[in-house]
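User: I'll paste a sequence; please echo it back and then give the predicted structure.

Assistant: Echoing your sequence first, then the prediction.
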Amino acid sequence: MAKTTDDLRNEIRQAVGRHERIESTAFTKEALAAICDAVGYEIDDVTLPPKAQMRAGILWTLDLVDDDDRENGTRPFRKSELQSIAAALDAS
């Protein structure tokens, strides 16, 4: 059976040391920061950048977009992007 987006989000959360969530929710800033760290996208840990910037940076680091422009991260991750993130975290 194919994984749902909720399954993928929880798999990613667990891979970066965050807690699994029962309800369907997008990533918090802290979870996005942990993903950034895991994929090698450097951010300021003291003052976390906006969610859009972190999402764009994650996608850029995984070669899913051309640059880390905030416009590339204005929406939640799509299922295919979640699959790519999960695969990258599983490989590291």
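The radius of gyration is 12 Å. The chain is about 50% helix and 0% strand.
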